[in-house]
Amino acid sequence: MKKFSSELAYFLGIALLALGTALIVRADFGVSMVVAPAYLMHLKVSELLPFFSFGMAEYTFQAMLLVLMCLILRKFRAYYLFSFVTAVVYGFVLDLFTPLVSLLPAASLFPRIVEFAFGIFFSASAIALLFHSYIPPEVYELFVKEFSERFGFDLGRVKICYDLISCGAAAIMSLVFFGGFRGIGVGTVVTALINGVLIGKFSKLLEKKFSFEDSTGLRKYLGEKNK
């Protein structure tokens, strides 16, 4: 079994997740159910504050989600704060990828389908990588991971449930904000149904091929016990 750096898994996961999200937005079939609430926040707030980017909406929304997670789990660990740092880094990378991806063709159906397919692939593989790093992932993934471990539920199933709830919340936000559906569509439903399955499969594949190990001494500063 080959060794794989946990830190590399983290940074590669962040980059792939931002790229995948940007591709899904470009395809315009509906954004991922996970980011849909933040995307709708971006669309609404940017009407008044044009500088409020998708990336900024991401870490603003995730800050609120982090508070909710601590209330549900009834605990707080210092390393949870690094999850917000991850959200900020992800937001900046997303804002870098978005204008680059906007250069891709999207005038006809076929390139949009290709962009959407790659977006799902990159996003699922990215989350699987983040789950194998001790560095706290985005609050979305941290929520699923902590909830699964706290209550002993299957990770993939918890992810599917979370995605469906997020999808429903986004639908309500869209109706309230715009009186109709914006940013969500058939693509949102597709990702809600298959993303958890893909993440589970990618995770099993990674665990079969690689042994994830630390290459720095950063873990002890995050307050998480060694695995």
Explain this structure:
The chain has one domain (2-212). The chain has eight helices and two strands; from the N terminus they run βααααααααβ. It has helices at 6-27, 36-45, 54-73, 80-101, 109-131, 139-151, 155-178, 186-209; strands at 2-5, 210-213. It has a two-stranded parallel sheet.
- Form type: globular
Main sheet, how many strands, which sense, barrel? 2 strands, parallel
Radius of gyration of CA atoms, rounded to a whole number = 17 Å
Number of helices: 8
Low-confidence stretches: none
Helix content: 55-70%
Series of H and E elements: EHHHHHHHHE
Jot down its keywords.
227 residues, 8 helices, 4% strand, single chain, two-stranded parallel sheet
Helix and strand arrangement:
Elements: E1 2-5, H1 6-27, H2 36-45, H3 54-73, H4 80-101, H5 109-131, H6 139-151, H7 155-178, H8 186-209, E2 210-213
Parallel strand pairs: 1-2
Summarize the structure.
The protein has 227 residues and is mainly alpha-helical. It is 70% helix and 4% strand. The protein has helices spanning 6-27, 36-45, 54-73, 80-101, 109-131, 139-151, 155-178, 186-209, and strands spanning 2-5, 210-213.
